[in-house]
Structures are given as C-alpha cells and as structure tokens.
Amino acid sequence: MKGYVQVVTTVPNAAEGADLARSIACERLAAGIQILGPIRSVYWWRGALQDATEWQLVILTTAEHFDDLERHIKANHTYETPEIIATDIVAGSAEYLRWITDETRKTDASS
C-alpha cells in the first residue's frame, strides 16, 4: 500500500486559510483540505506565551507529496515558522485512499 499522510498547519485568519488551501489543491499536492476554525491556540513564541485565534488546515495527501507540500506551505505562509506536522494514515477505506492517490496525481499540464 502506498503511504498516506494527514498534514496539519495553522493560519492567522480564514482568508489566508482559503487561499493556502486553494493553492495546495491547484498544485495537486493534496486531494482535499479541510479548514477548521476559529480555534484558540496557546503557545510559546520567542519566550512569550501567546494566546491567539487561528484556523487549522487538515491536508490529505500521499507520503510522496509531503516534501513538495512542505515547500509550498513554507513559500506561501505568512508565519515565520509555520506549523507543518504530518501524521501517517495507518488505515482507511480502500476507496477513500484510492481517491487520495487519484486526486494527487500530477497531470501533464501541471508537471
């Protein structure tokens, strides 16, 4: 079985989330992206405790696309150090995993 991952990143607002999700999908780096929010994030940044409202993107892709997806997120994100966490999908319905594979294939036009 081909490897699949769920990648999570957060953005500061819904508009940036929508823009980033669309750009990822248009590049065929993921089969689908869910935008969840608003969420509340409490975290340390540069020695100070932060309490912020963010939106979370949950990105479904193949493991082979992770490196390109990571580069894309870094190049198109407004955060200096964006969250980019990948979790292996250890199981899923065959039809759903096939959909991820089919929809992340690069077309001749986008290669």
TrEMBL record:
GO process terms (BP): response to metal ion
InterPro entries the UniProt entry points to: Ion_tolerance_CutA, N-reg_PII-like_a/b, N-reg_PII/ATP_PRibTrfase_C
Gene Ontology MF annotations: copper ion binding
Pfam families the record matches: CutA1
Transmembrane segments: none
Similarity comment: family membership: Belongs to the CutA family.
Name this polypeptide is given: Periplasmic divalent cation tolerance protein
